[in-house]
Amino acid sequence: MSANVWFDDWGSTVGRAFHIATVRGVAVRLHPTLLLVIPWVLWHWGGRSVDPLRGALFGVFVLVAVFVSVVGHELAHALVAHRFGLAVRDVTLLPIGGLTRIEQGPLPPRREAIIALAGPALNLLVATALVPIVSGMLVLRDATSLPALAQLVSETSVASLLALTMVSNVLLAVFNLIPAFPMDGGRVLRAWLSTVSERSRATRISVTAGYVVSLGALGLGVWLRDPTLPIAGLFLATAAFLEQRTLELERAMQRLPVGQFAVWDGGGVDPEEPLAHALRGGPRDLAVVRDGIVVGMLWREIVLRHANIAHLLRAADVMDRAFAAVSPQTSVYEAHRRMLASGHPAVPVVDPGNRYRGIFTSDRLTHVYRYVQSPRRTTARWILLARALGLLGR
C-alpha cells in the first residue's frame, strides 16, 4: 500500500522517522514502526521452511524486495511532481507501505492524474520486466500453470524471490488504483471529477469513497480474522481524514485576505540605508521601500551572508528587484502559493499603486494556521468526519 499526500509548510502527516537515503534530492525515511514487521517476517518464513534459518533469511530478502518496490513507486510520484514544479518533502516507509509528501495546491486535473499514475506505472513496468524471467523458470520446470506459480512462490529460492517481487509489484499497482483516497486511484478519480464538477466536490466524493473502502477493509478483516486488513482500513480512514482536513484548511485560507495578517515592520527599509540597518531587531526578510513604493526585497539569507561587511553596503546593493507582490485582498492561500513559487518565505503586500502595506511571512502563515485550527473549528471537523462515516445525520 502507498499514498501520496499533498502537504503544506505548516503541517506534517507522519511522526518521527529516520533518514536512510536521498535520491534525486528527495529524502527517503524509515518510520520506526516498520521494525515491527521484521519479527513477523522472521516467524512467518522461518516457521514454514525446513531450515528455519534459511527461511528467516529468505523472508528478509522478500521484505527488502517489497519495500524497494514501494520506494520506487513513491519516487516515481516524486520525480514526476518535480517535473511539474512541485516541491517534494520526503518519502517515508511505513509498515503498510509508503507515503510521499508533495507540495499541496490545486493542480490541473491532467497533471494530478499523471503524478498519481506514475507510481502504479512503475510497478507494472517492473512486473512486466520480470515476466520473461519468471516464465522462463516455469518453462524450465515444465510447469506453466497457476498452481505451478503458487508452488514456486512458496519456495525459498532465487526463483521464488523473483516471482514474489513480480507478484508484489502487480498487487501494488492494482491496489493503488482503487478509486478512493488516499490511493492513487482516488486522485485519478478526483482529477476526472474535477473536469466535470468543482474540485471541492470532487475531493469530497473521493474522500467518501476512501471511508467506504476503509470500513469495508475493517469489516472484511474482522470476518476473515485477518489483523492486516483492519490495520490497512485504519490507515485508509486516517489518510482520508487528512485529505479532508487539507481541503477544509485550503478553503479556510481562500476566504482570509492576506492584508488582515500582514505586518508593517517599520515600513520597510530605504534602499540608501546601510545594510546594517536590516540587522536591527534581528535578521529577517524585509521590504525595501522608497517614498512608500516597494522597489525590492532583502532576504534574510542574503543579509546574513553579508553580515560581516553590512556597514559597507547599502540595502540597494543586495536587494532582490525581481520580487513577487500581492494585494491586501489576495487570499492567504494564494499568497502562500506565490511564496512557494518564488522560493522565498515572505511576500510584500502592496496596493494597486505598488505602495507598501506590509509584509506577509512564513511566521505569519503559522499564525494564520493556528487561527483556523481553533478548538471550535477542530470540533467542526470531527463532526464532518462523523457525518462522512455515517455516524451522524446531516
Describe the structure.
- Helix content is 54%, strand content 13%.
- The protein has helices at 37-47, 52-83, 109-140, 146-153, 158-176, 184-194, 199-224, 228-255, 300-305, 315-318, 332-342, 362-372, 375-388; strands at residues 2-7, 18-23, 26-30, 88-94, 97-103, 286-290, 293-298, 346-350, 356-361.
- A hairpin with a 2-residue loop joins strand 6 and strand 7.
- Helix 1 crosses helix 2, helix 6 runs antiparallel to helix 7 and helix 7 runs antiparallel to helix 8 (228-255).
- The longest helix has 32 residues, at 52-83.
- It is elongated and about 85 Å long.
- The two termini are 32 Å apart.
- Mean pLDDT is 79; it is low at 5-14 and 379-394.
Short structural description:
The protein is an alpha/beta fold and 394 residues long. It is 54% helix and 13% strand.
Structural class: alpha/beta
Helix-residue proportion: 40-55%
Mean pLDDT: 79
**CA-atom Rg in angstroms:** 26 Å
SSE diagram, text form:
Blueprint: E1 2-7, E2 18-23, E3 26-30, H1 37-47, H2 52-83, E4 88-94, E5 97-103, H3 109-140, H4 146-153, H5 158-176, H6 184-194, H7 199-224, H8 228-255, E6 286-290, E7 293-298, H9 300-305, H10 315-318, H11 332-342, E8 346-350, E9 356-361, H12 362-372, H13 375-388
Parallel strand pairs: 1-5, 3-4
Antiparallel strand pairs: 2-3, 4-5, 6-7, 8-9
